[in-house]
Structure formats: structure tokens, C-alpha cells
């Protein structure tokens, strides 16, 4: 279902962000697949890989400057999953950046929610199905 192989970006604190993403992405079926310690990374920071079925599609790492304007969108098969993500992400400490709803400026079936993670990354979950 995913059109992304993986996305990676720097965060201020890999452990704070790990906690956020573990909780916020659980409704999508994502979990932490792997952690790579500082002794095995180019930047000397910790890397966490999240995904499904043993394959990490989202990588976060610290010990580098977090990027500005980073956005990532995940696909959901059902609108209810978008709603679950939004609730879980807010409960995990995320900041509202757009409650679940139809975004007709994209198209009539574009149902999405937006949350800023602990570093201000705009995380979106979108369902483009009518359900």
C-alpha cells in the first residue's frame, strides 16, 4: 500500500521522538523495527527505524540539525485510521496542525489529519478512499 520506501530525518532527541512515533503510528500498524546505536552511525547519533512486516520505512536520528519544513505523509486505507492516528499523536504529545477532515482543495475524497511532532515536523495521514 505504501508509495514510500523510506523517509529519514534528523530530530533533536531520538528517545523523545522514538516515544512519540511508537505511540502515534501504532494505529497504522507501524512499530519500531530496529535501533542502531551511536557507535554504528555516520553522525554518532542514535537511529530508530519504524515500519511494518520487519521493514523500516521511517528512520529518525539525532546528533544532526533537524531540518526545517519537513513533511511526511502516510497512507491509510480507512478514514477511521486517520482519526485514530490523530488521537494517538495528540496523546503522545504532538501538536494539532489540522484536525481530521476532507480537504476539498486537493479533491473530494482527500481525508487527512496533520500533527506536528516534537521537533515541528508536519506529519500527515491521508485516506483517499471514500469510506
Q: Fill in the CATH topology.
A: 2,3-Dihydroxybiphenyl 1,2-Dioxygenase, domain 1
Following the backbone from N to C, one meets helices and strands in this order, namely EHEEEEHEEE
What structural class results from the helix and strand content? alpha/beta
Mean pLDDT: 91
Unreliable sequence segments: none
CATH class: Alpha Beta
CATH homologous superfamily designation:
2,3-Dihydroxybiphenyl 1,2-Dioxygenase, domain 1
Helix proportion of residues, in percent?
Answer: 10-25%
Distance between the termini: 16 Å
- CATH architecture, please? Roll
Count, helices: 2
**How many strands?**
8
Shape: globular
InterPro entries: Glyas_Bleomycin-R_OHBP_Dase, Glyas_Fos-R_dOase_dom, VOC_core
Protein name: VOC domain-containing protein
Organism: Vreelandella titanicae
Domain VOC: 3-128
Amino acid at each position: 500500500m505504501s508509495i514510500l520506501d523510506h523517509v529519514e530525518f534528523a530530530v533533536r532527541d531520538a528517545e523523545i521522538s522514538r516515544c512519540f512515533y511508537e505511540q502515534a503510528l501504532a494505529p497504522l500498524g507501524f512499530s519500531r523495527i530496529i535501533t542502531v546505536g551511536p557507535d554504528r552511525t555516520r553522525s554518532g547519533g542514535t537511529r530508530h527505524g519504524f515500519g511494518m512486516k520487519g521493514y523500516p520505512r521511517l528512520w529518525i536520528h539525532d546528533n544532526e540539525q533537524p531540518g526545517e519544513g519537513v513533511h511526511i505523509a502516510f497512507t491509510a486505507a480507512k478514514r477511521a485510521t486517520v482519526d485514530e492516528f490523530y488521537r494517538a499523536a495528540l496523546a503522545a504529545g504532538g501538536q494539532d496542525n489540522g484536525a481530521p477532515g476532507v480537504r476539498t482543495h486537493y479533491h473530494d475524497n482527500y481525508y487527512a489529519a496533520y500533527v506536528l511532532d516534537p521537533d515541528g515536523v508536519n506529519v500527515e495521514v491521508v485516506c483517499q478512499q471514500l469510506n
